[in-house]
Amino acid sequence: MGTIVQKYGGSSVANVERIQHVARRVVENKRNGNDVIVVVSAMGDTTDELIEKAAQINPHPSSREMDMLLSTGEQISISLLAMAIEAAGEPVISLTGGMSGILTDTAHKKARIASVDPTRVLKELADGKIVIVAGFQGVTKDWNITTLGRGGSDTTAVALAAAVKADLCEIYTDVEGVFTADPRKVPHANQIPEISYDEMLELAKLGAQVLHPRSVELARKYDVPLVVRSTFSDHPGTRVVEVNRMEQVLVRGVTLDNNIARIAVANVPDQPGIAFGLFKKLADHHITIDMIIQNLNHAAKNDISFTVALDDLHEAAQVSREYLKEIGGQGDVLEKENVSKISIVGTGITGNAEVASKLFGTLYDLGINIEMISTSEIKISCIIDSEKCDEALRRLHTAFALDRLDIV
User: Fold this and answer.
1) Do the first three CATH levels of 3-174 and 260-336 match, i.e. the same topology?
2) Strand, coil or helix: what is 15?
């Protein structure tokens, strides 16, 4: 018995029947003697539908008004779920992110949580209620509503779990845990029973859509026990913990991220401060940069290439062009959308030369050119053309024996 935070994604509450199913799960946990906090996303495709409606009215709405609009999706979900739990006879209350004490910075549409004051949540729990919290949102110190970006409900759940010192944080989704690859693209992908925070963080950053990266960072920082489970089965799921027994395992998963684009800023002066100026301007626009390569071109000129989220491509390219003009650069800014990032993740892989050789060799066998390479202690990522990315994912999954059940 203890305090449990449960997060249910949009597919878990996509219609009335699924909301009632979630309500039964929540009530069962409450009647088993637990204090239960539930974080809920917007129903199904509600967020996409709201974005589409906004575009019909104003192609370039302000970020503040978009946050006012998008935050309503979660408020519909929490109130309907609260009603379903009321119908089951349990005391319950729904709260917005602001009511729950979630304070953010002022970066609309991409806000980061600054602090969580759990006073209201703890009071409602002490009164015997199930607490339903709107995911994906918070407020600024000036009481403006903000949203946390795609996947932000995961971050809400982990932040609340840390604030109330929960015994467990469960992330419910439409798959039975974390897999060695996306099971929709790789039929022989295997579910991983247990994975380390570091490996999970890399998988999340590299395109595995089960958990949002910021939620994993928070869980690791505050030692929040985290489990990824399916809403629609009783499978125990994947536990995300500090695991030190995995040194014998090399590759744990293969990921593919199609939501990226590449920008090349050509012929910038080869002198100190140029790269700093460019990435400072991009940071000022809250544009997150992933992979970066700087090449010495010729005649004291450099080419700087980097990747961004696809949604940020045009803004990032515009900022880059403005900066190039400021420094008197004679080159151009080149945009490329049809790229994918394919990655392998696992403890100790960069210490084994055979792993990189097998990765590059597999891509070579498929006739795939590598445009950029990035490494860390537990991952190798390559930017490739999107044309053969799904085939590359399947071939790498097989090449590293992840089709075998005993590898996980």
Assistant:
1) no
2) coil
